[in-house]
Design brief:
Layout lengths: L5 H11 L3 H13 L3 H24 L12 H10 L7 H18 L5 E2 L8 H12 L4 H21 L4 H4 L1 H19 L4 H13 L17 H20 L8 H14 L16 H11 L4 H5 L2 H8 L9 H5 L14 H9 L10 E2 L1
Parallel strand pairs: 1-2
Helix pairs in contact: 2-7, 3-5, 3-7, 4-5, 5-6, 5-11, 6-9, 6-11, 7-9, 9-10, 9-11, 10-11, 10-12
């Protein structure tokens, strides 16, 4: 079953009297042929990897391969311990964790793409902070990943999760929405409240451009992951308080898709416009890659990704979110979520062994 609208998820969950995570798990069992326990164990393994990345980046500074970023996750983690922050320490912990995972990604460490490598910090950040709070059982948090996967599936099928196709709103925005929805269900919110959390979170990300400095998934990607973890927490609390997205969440997703199509190429992961086009952004690019010509810039990985991805085929399976896939696993010519991650969201970096996607 290929979900294309959040209302489908709500209707299914309400008709069965279950949560969205249960709907997603049942669909996965039906489509994969695996047992519930096998799927749960696989998701639990994904969460283990997420937590591993969080701890790695908070316990010690992690430096990116390029050398231009690193250490902010550890820096924020130590700051939280002082108890002098304006924001509640538990929320700041989510930020520190999100920064850490993103830094592990930029250091070519092992992460789970949720839904992409460029937005891999938000969902782990908020869920590991919830785990550390002691308010929820680990198995319940693992189940909330099913909810996040269902939300990501809808967005991928009806819009995009690729920065090269729809700007950063499609990556960080989608990840924020997935995290917000997962939190609401974890707190026993209704399926409808889950979708309102998605709508609220995504509205706060509309128009966010993808402008990675030097074409690398570092500046501003890492900081955006940290800040949007706070947005996810806030959107979840708003939905649980009864705040509704006046624009129906499915219409918010549709708006994101249209906005993404209207973004110029320079703001879709090409490393040309926005922050990448500032004097400092250009200087960093030159420091990392040496002096480049206009032709070199035009041949960046991001531009190539845009050129080769003129059409988004809005049909994916849950399995695409649960584990890495290859082109051989899918009908010829069909674009998958994982393919998008590999071609676009890692910038100039190639996928590495152990990197997985949800």
């Amino acid at each position: 079953m290929a979900f294309t609208h959040l209302r489908e998820l709500v209707e299914l969950a309400q008709s069965r009297g279950v949560q969205i995570s249960r709907v997603m798990l049942d669909v996965e069992v039906e489509q994969s042929g695996a047992t519930e326990q096998e799927i749960f164990d696989k998701m639990a393994y994904q969460f283990d990897i997420m937590e591993e990345a969080v701890r790695k980046g908070t316990n010690e500074p992690v430096q990116s391969r390029s050398g231009i970023t690193g250490g902010d996750g550890h820096r924020m983690y130590e700051y939280v311990k002082k108890g002098q922050s304006f924001i509640d320490p538990s929320a700041l912990s989510a930020m520190a964790y999100a920064l850490s995972v993103s830094e592990v990604n930029s250091a070519m460490g092992r992460i789970v793409a949720t839904p992409t490598a460029g937005s891999a910090g938000i969902l782990p950040g908020v869920l590991v902070s919830v785990l550390d709070s002691g308010r929820y059982k680990r198995e319940d948090i693992v189940m909330s990943l099913m909810t996040a996967a269902a939300i990501g599936l809808v967005i991928a099928n009806s819009a995009s999760i690729s920065g090269a196709a729809g700007g950063c709103q499609a990556e960080v925005g989608s990840a924020t929405a997935m995290a917000a929805g997962a939190l609401v269900e974890l707190a026993d919110g209704t399926p409808e409240q889950v979708t309102h959390a998605v709508g609220l979170a995504l509205k706060n990300s509309l128009g966010l451009v993808c402008d990675p400095v030097a074409g690398l998934v570092e500046i501003p990607c890492i900081v955006r992951n940290g800040l949007h973890s706070i947005t996810a927490l806030a959107a979840a609390d708003m939905a649980l308080a009864g705040v509704r997205s006046i624009i129906p969440p499915d219409e918010v997703i549709a708006a994101m898709y249209r906005i993404g199509n209207e973004l110029p190429l320079s703001l879709r992961e090409t490393g040309i416009g926005g922050l990448a086009g500032t004097p400092t952004g250009k200087a960093i690019r030159e420091r990392v890659f040496g002096r480049v010509t206009g032709t070199d810039v035009g041949a960046s990985a991001g531009v190539q990704a845009c050129r080769t991805r003129a059409v988004h085929v809005p049909e994916t399976t849950v399995q695409d979110h649960l584990e890495p896939a290859t082109l051989q696993d899918h009908p010829a010519g069909k674009e998958t979520v994982t393919d998008e991650v590999r071609e676009a969201d890692t910038g100039q970096e190639q996928p590495r062994e152990g990197q997985t996607t949800i």
